[in-house]
Amino acid sequence: MKVTDFDYELPKELIAQHPVEPRDHSRLFVLDKNTGAFAHRYFYDLPNYLCAGDLLVFNDTRVIPARLHGEKDTGAHVEVLLLIRKNTTDWEALVRPGKKLQLGAKINFGKELSCKVIGHTDFGGRVVRFEYDGVFEEILDKLGETPLPPYITEPLENKERYQTVYNRERGSAAAPTAGLHFTKELLQKIKDMGCEEVFVTLHVGLGTFRPVSVENIEDHNMHKEFYVVSQEAANAINKAKAEGRRIIAVGTTAVRTLESAGADGVVKAGGAWTQIFIYPGYRYKFVDALITNFHLPQSTLMMLVSALSSREIILAAYAEAIKEKYRFFSFGDAMFITNVFKMC
User: Fold this and answer.
1) Omega within 30 of 0 (cis) for the link into 97
2) Which distant-in-sequence residues (6+ apart) come within 8 Å of 259 by Cβ?
């Protein structure tokens, strides 16, 4: 398969620059993954398409203020985007300008924080070692910025709108955006109707969003991301699977966690790194349905959702969403790709 097989034309004005208020008032494109039938709804209508016994799997990661602005000893401005914490002092990061930040380069972010470039990564980034006086997380909260995707060009007034209402575990460089549509009230309503919820953690890096730079998608290498599944969550997921109940992933990060932890047919508790790359031809082991946003053309996420349905059905659904002027990407509207296209 070619990368261009997953392309589509998106008018620039449909790229959402701001989140909808309230959260659950975004639109919801309900799609039958088997037939391509669809319905136009709002996200607060989601409970109408859920059934008692459904298990919803959420990613409870929290985005950290991972973008730091600093200066070299020469006074030149540089930017460091933290991706993966290796230990108490060392991080894998993206840096700009990369050519000017080679081994040994030192970056100052203020009196409390500095770092030195000590290595290169396999994705063109750097390994940096921090020196700081105090608690690193507190310093990062003070000096860092929440890294919004580059296609969002307008400022975000309330930084918590780029966090889910159920976030708990710090560590992501980007939000699991499918979860941004949920309110606490909607979560309670879903629980009250007899659905079950579990939380897993996958710290979102940039691997999911990196452009596919090869012509054949089979040649693409995913960047690694760290996930954790508790024993309680693993038990609940395996029980739902054994009982034939529907497992609904909230976001592609929940998909990657489920399919990685359950690669052998049983979800295992614990933490591990994943580089799973899901594209058409992949047979899902645990995910029956998916709540997700609309994704970038030619992206690995377009390939992942196509694997749950088909490339033709997904591209036709995107064409319909564009015609109806849905809002796209991180702050945009949502899709529910379901195997039960009816109101329960």
Assistant:
1) yes
2) 276, 278, 284, 285, 286, 287
Burial of 288 (0-12, 13-18, 19+ CB in 10 A): buried
- Give the per-residue pLDDT at 208: 60
> Residue 155's CB: how many other CB atoms inside 10 A?
8
- Cα distance between residue 228 and residue 170, in whole Å: 12
Q: Which residues of 244-272 are buried (b: 16+ CB within 10 A; e: fewer)?
A: ebbbbbbbbbbbbbbbbbbeeeebeeeee
Q: Does domain 3-63+158-338 have CATH number 2.120.10.30?
A: no
Helices (H) and strands (E) in the chain, counts: 6, 17
Reduced to 3 states, what is the DSSP secondary structure of residue 196? Answer: strand
Is pTM beyond 0.70? Reply is yes
Domain ranges of the chain: 3-63+158-338, 67-143
What are 119-144's pLDDT values in tens digits?
Answer: 999 878 999 999 998 999 999 999 99
- For the record, the structure tokens of 204 come out as 């979102």
- Residue-wise pLDDT for 186-214, tens only, equals 999 999 999 999 999 999 987 666 678 89
Question: How many angstroms separate the CA atoms of 294 and 316, rounded?
Answer: 13
And the tokens for 27?
């639109």
